[in-house]
C-alpha cells in the first residue's frame, strides 16, 4: 500500500509537469513534488535469543521483551515504529507529552510511559523499580560504568562499536534497536523506506544536487551559534542532494559535536541554502540581531529556511519517523529558499 501511494504521488507529479504545456499564455503551472507518504508501524515477532554487539561488548536478549525502557534521547521513535510501546522514555527537551513528539505520539495508543530525567545521570534506582526486561540506549551518551549498572538490572543494548556518545548515524541506531528486538530485517525495512522516500524527492529536484547547505540551531546560546558539521544530523540535507558547507568541523570541540561559531565567524555559514532551526518568533528575532547574520547573502537574498518548533525538533531527532515528518514539511520550504523566495519574517 505504501509503495503504491508513493508511486501515485510520483505519477501525479509527472502528470502535472506534462500539463504545464497546456497552461494558458503567461501562466506557469508548478508541479507538486512527491511527499512522504507516512511511516507505518511494523508489527512483528523477533527471533530469540538475540545477540547484539555494541561499544561495551555483547548483550544477549533471551526472549521477546515485554517491558522495554528507553534511556536515550530518541530511541522511543524506533521502538514505537516497530510496534513496541516502552514502559519508560527519557526526556530530552521540549517538554512534549510523554516525552514523545507529535510525529510519534499517536503510536503510544493511549499509553503513558514513565518519563525519566537523565540530566543528572541515569536514574538507576527508578529504572530498577520498573523491572524492565530490556534497556535500550543507543543515543544516550552511555559510559562503561553506566552500562555496568544498567546491565545489572536487565539486558542493555547501547550503540554500535566505535560510535560517538550521541547522534551516531541514524541507520546504525535503527538497526541496533531492531537487533535488540530480534528483528534486524524490520529495522532495515525502516531504513530502506526513508532512504527511498528521500531519493524520490531528490530525483524530483535534480537542481538541488551539489548545492551547498548549512544547518544551524535557530538562535545563539552563550554568544555562539551551534552549527552542524557534515555527517552530524545532516542526512536530511545530503539525502536530498545538498552538500554540507565544508570546514565547520574545525570549530567543533570534539568529534560528534556541533561547531561553535562566534559572532566574528558568522560568514562561515554562508551557503546556497541555510536551514535555521528556529522555534518561535522570539528566537527568530534574536537570530536576526546576532552579529552579522542579517547581512549574510543567504539571509538577505531569501535563501534561508526558518522552522517552527516541531519541525526543529524533527531535524534534531533524525529518526525514521521524524525524517518522514521532515520530508513532508521541509521540502516546500527548501523549494522556496532555493528559488530565493524564502521568508523575511517568522512564519510558524
Automatic annotation (TrEMBL):
InterPro entries: ABC_transptr_periplasmic_BD (IPR002491), Bact_iron-sidero_bind (IPR051313). It comes from the Bacteria. Keywords: Signal, Transport. It is found in: Cell envelope. Residues 1-18 form the signal peptide. Residues 67-338 form the Fe/B12 periplasmic-binding domain. Gene3D superfamilies: Nitrogenase molybdenum iron protein domain (3.40.50.1980). PANTHER family: FERRIC ENTEROBACTIN-BINDING PERIPLASMIC PROTEIN FEPB, IRON III DICITRATE-BINDING PERIPLASMIC PROTEIN. Belongs to the bacterial solute-binding protein 8 family. This is ABC transporter substrate-binding protein. The lineage of its organism: Bacteria, Bacillati, Actinomycetota, Actinomycetes, Propionibacteriales.
